[in-house]
Input
Amino acid sequence: MMSCMKSDAINMVKYELTYFNGRGRAEVCRLLFATAGQPYTDTRIEQAEWPKLKPKMPQQTIPVLKIDGKTQVSQSLVIARYLAREFKMDGGSSLQALFVDEFVCTALDLFENYAKAAFSPNMEEDMKKFKSETLPKFYKLLDASISKNGKNGFAVGSSVTLADLYVYNVVESVGLDELKDYKNLKANRDKVESIDKIKKYLASRVKTPF
Output
């Protein structure tokens, strides 16, 4: 369990995020906390602990966000969207919020395709097809959307949003080497990593296999 404290917190709400000791489905939420400068307790559990803790979770899944020590909510995307709203990273208008959601759903579709290939009985063949067909298709979509909807390297508008962080996290999992062929997507990743709070978080982030 780690308490992640920042001196420029945006509110006094007490947050606890519970997940496995890995990036996985909780990492976007951690990036949101880091970007906002919001203190929270980063509770990381090991696989061996999960069977005992599972019945205590609201939906017997993690991540789980606990708010002020009592309210608990499940589902990683629900948590991320809530935090993005609280931290004003959901888009500056209803239209921008619409495009933020589009980026998030596109990134999730990309990751779902990656996971299917990675855990397929024919993994080697399916992963080769993913890298040669599916990945370029999605990277092209994301690259064009960044060009259309973002400014100064950001995915939507001219400031960091949930869209940037979701894309950043998914790209880290599915394919960094291919970014060189997609200048807007590469610029977006560079932009995210140039944000001081994210840079500090990444420098101190626990190294895990997933």
Observations:
- The chain has a mean pLDDT of 95.
- The helical segments are 27-36, 50-53, 76-86, 94-118, 123-149, 162-174, 183-194, 196-204.
- DSSP finds eight helices and five strands in the chain.
